[in-house]
Amino acid sequence: MELDQGKMDQEPGRPTWSRQIEFTLAGIGCAVGLGNVWRFPYLCYRSGGGAFLIPYLLMLLVMGIPLLYMELILGQYMRRGPVHALAKACPLLKGVGLATVAISFIMSTYYNIIITWGLYYLFSSFQSPLPWQSCNNTWNTPNCTDHVTPNTSSHSSTASQQFFNYRMLERTGGVDESGVLRWELFLLLLLAWILIYLCIFKGVKSTGKVVYFTALFPYVILLALLINNVQLPGAMEGIRFFIVPNWEKLLELEVWVNAAAQIFNSIGIGFGSLMAMSSYNNFNNNILKDTLAISITNSLTSILAGFVIFSAFGYMSHLQNIPVSELAVDGPGLVFVVYPQAFATMPVAPLWAFLFFFMLLCLGLDSQFAMVEVMVTSLMDGFGGPLLKFLRKKEMLVLAVCSTAFLLGIPHVMQVGIYVFQLMDHYTAIVSLMFLAFFEVLAICGLYGVRRLSANLKEMTGSRPNIFFRVCWMFVAPLLITMILVFTIIQFEPARYENYVYPPWAQGIGWVIAMASIIWIPLGALHTLWVLPGSFTERLLKSITPYALENERGGETYPNIAVINSFGRETEKPHIQTNL
Fold first, then answer.
1. Biggest alpha carbon–alpha carbon distance for the chain
2. Known binder of ligand: residue 298?
């Protein structure tokens, strides 16, 4: 996207999207990712197929759309990334902004591993027959089988499983056996980060152009796959499993929690990515249209991917002569084991395999753009002057961020990599995210206040949010998130991969990973109370007063600017002042 110098909107030097459609496409690309073709179908399958769609759509309506709207309003109004936007909105919980940056950066280090695996399969698709099509390979073991039947031994594994485990990963027996570096995966990880850098090194200027392709082309492939899959024998059985509810499953609380968690993971609530991108919007942009476009497109994509994946499941159940509900599906195995296994028996198998994994690459790149952009935007907002003085150009900062994330991702391309990946995903995408979402809603809907958020929207667009959004912000979303957080804590299970249970020391590392993002919330609160002047009561009152709003009683802005200084050396007055 080109920088539009005529749209700096009350803040000299901050670029904006030259066309609003670029933000919408970037937002869709951020929300629509690998989770739509991996995590959503997996949770749907595990939760009884059609029974999952009911709570999923309900959670989208009362939590997904309202909370995304909330994040985009705050980002567009504050004209800052999540760190400074949250620091201005609620000084006491400014650590929430830092936590969003931390969790996005942590996820970017291992999310790119999925892109790396996708690249490995993409290049492997230029072979006929496909390398996971038979057991006549050097990496196959005696218990390998080309076709699974009801009489197949439980100790057997398919050619597709063995390609994933013994050819690509060459995995060890557990997390305590590190193994050696997988040079092929190492080079593909480097290639993945080079692609990321080339797409975002110019900031929104380059990202805005790339998303025209990466956000739209996956739909062409999804439709092509769907047309092909529905013609396969048994496909209708898989689709029936996907859309016909198992009503008994709706009585299980875990199904509802999984639906809410998928909404948070997929749309990106709590990651700060969309808040960072919305800070580059025109100040008077109608944010509701973007909210609806991003959230609804995201969910429709998940449902479209569901039809594609479950039609393939039906085909696999037909070949194996077993019910759809008895297929072996677990986590990443859905994308890298079950679906490639279905490709192997399709006509023109290499073509379909190439298209599928190229689609995964496009989906992964979009989401990865957003997670890296959170870190870059936050660093520029807080330390832009000193960083540019040292690094000369913003492109060098982007290179530094990408290089650091690449180095932190190297353990994932060792033979122990799959265990590291599963451990990080479990404690980041499940544990950290729920805590982060809870405190974000508390900071914005609670302490910043629905009344102020509504006033911000009116100042930008001329109209306040309707009663539905205000009720969701004040009551529905906080209540549901609290219930989900409590359930997550009570029903928490340690990380595992297939039948492997991690040892206690590895679980401890998992909690350290989780705390790497959560810890900023209490630290931020303590720091705010420490640096503010006055008695403890005065400090507490000042800590819940937004910087960007005037004191209603006297028209003076609270002197809390020292707190922002501690995080970002931001000394100018807020760009907007509002009397409520």
1. 81
2. yes
Asked whether residue 157 is marked as a ligand-binding residue, the answer is no
Q: What is the mean pLDDT of residues 12-29?
A: 79
Contact between residue 59 and residue 322 where contact means Cβ atoms under 8 Å apart: no
36 labeled binding residue: yes
C-alpha triplet 317, 45, 264: angle, nearest 5° = 150
Which residue from 337, 266, 297 is spatially nearest to 35, judged by alpha carbons?
A: 266
Is 266 annotated for ligand binding?
yes
- Per-residue tokens: 271: 């990651």
- In whole angstroms, what is the distance from residue 137 CA to residue 132 CA? 9
pLDDT tier at 522, thresholds 50, 70, 90: very high
Q: What is the mean pLDDT of residues 314-322?
A: 84
Torsions phi, psi for 339 (to 5 deg): -70, -45
Residue 237 corresponds to which amino acid? E
What length is written for the chain?
A: 580
Hey, what's the torsion of the CAs at 514, 517, 523, 528, to 10 degrees? Answer: -150
Least confident interval from 28-37, 191-200, 331-340, 462-471: 331-340
In the numeric block, which tokens belong to residue 441? Answer: 């809603």
Query: The whole model's pTM is what?
Result: 0.84
Q: Give me the sign of the Cα torsion angle 160, 307, 484, 111.
A: positive
Q: Is 284 annotated as a binding residue?
A: no
DSSP state of 232: S
Residue 153 Cα distances to 147, 158, 567, angstroms: 12, 11, 59
Confidence (pLDDT) at 557: 38
Give me Rg for the CA atoms of the chain.
24
102: its two tokens: 């931390």
- Beta bridge partners of residue 181, listed in sequence order: 414
* Beta carbons of 101 and 272 less than 8 angstroms apart: yes
Query: In whole angstroms, what is the distance from residue 173 CA to residue 161 CA?
Result: 15
26 known ligand binder: no
Q: What is the pLDDT of residues 90-112, one digit of tens each?
A: 999 999 989 988 988 998 998 89
Q: Any binding-site annotation on 367?
A: yes
Sorting pLDDT into bands at 50, 70 and 90, what band is 239?
very high
Highest mean pLDDT among 61-75, 163-177, 492-506: 61-75
Q: Helix, strand, coil shares of the chain as percentages rounded to 5?
A: 70, 0, 30
As a whole number of angstroms, the distance between CA 99 and CA 440 comes to 10
Going by C-alpha positions, the residue among 579, 576, 539 that lies closest to residue 559 is 539
Q: Kindly state the average pLDDT of the residues 402-429.
A: 91
Of the pLDDT bands very low, low, confident and very high (cuts 50, 70, 90), residue 11 is low
Q: Locate tokens 């959170």: which residue?
A: 374
